[in-house]
Amino acid sequence: MTRDFPMTRTIVAAAGLMLAAPLWAQFGGEPTVEVASAEQREMAPTMQVAGTVLSRSDASLSAEVEGRLVEVADVGTRVAAGDVVARIEDTTLQLRVAELEAEINRGEARLQFLDAELDRVQRLAETNLAAASQIDQTRSERDMAQSDLAVARARLAQLQDQIERTRVRAPFPGVVVERVARMGERVGIGARILRLVDPESLEVVARAPLRYYRFVLPGDRLIVDAEGDVFEAPLRTVVSVGNEELHVFELRLDIDRPLPVGQTARVTIPTADLREVLAVPRDALVLRGSGTAVFVIEQDGTARRATVSTGIGQGDWIEVAGPVQAGDRIVVRGNERLRDGQQVEVRISGGEPDPDDDSAMAGPAPPQPDAVSP
Length: 374
What we know:
By secondary structure, this protein is of the alpha+beta class.
């Protein structure tokens, strides 16, 4: 005969209640989720085009006079605007300057003498002691001396300009990134000496198919992905450079990120006009074998699984179509293990309870009575 122990019946009854209870109730009660509202937004389909980070100030500096290099800045040298980055020997020019200065001194002395001589001849002519032709001749010699002096001064200014050009100066602040010629080499006019780049003044240059030209305008803010660094940048200019071989146009975007010059980037551009769509945050999507879904929080605090199809995306938002309406509370955090019909505790961003959640305002559920033996 089997004996029936009260304690055994109690344990069996409790086990039955646990099996009948929902899974989430067995492991600590209602889960906490974070929600955001579904919104009507203006979006357009997009595509990514390849771009490159370039410096807006990138110049190859060349020699403007002929001569031997006596100084060239090393690669990696950071300079300010106006600093000397290379210097060409100017000994010959300095000697010619000294020669011209002596010639100018001689011309000034001769001009001073002819001015005095002209005054003397003019006084003699007043007393009929000098002929008019003598006055004309003296005046002519004085004028020629003035012209010779002006020519000498102009030649001196040209030499001083050439001496200044023996010093290759940085036209903008930057870094020497390439040295083509080295100290001791002789260079001619126009010969490249070094390359200077300003790493602080950057832009992204990208090219896109011409058929999308009308969908972008200067001033638009486009998304740039520079090797995982994603940010928005203003479109400074759009240049149509299409030809018979390359049907593309050029986009130039200003950036203020400390990116290396030459780094590749991806620029997202619209490929159609804007249209109004229903959108949810991308974090709301739950990808499972049965399809893509979002969880909508109902007024009673339960989660409803809504199967959706996705469309165009923009930033952190994506278009959805399905049993979802604008204003619905969509789970964006804590949706990985949710089940359809599950009771949840809703919190808004920052950890505060959602005032629209009736279940959160009602307080904890009353304790269930212990199972007892009949």
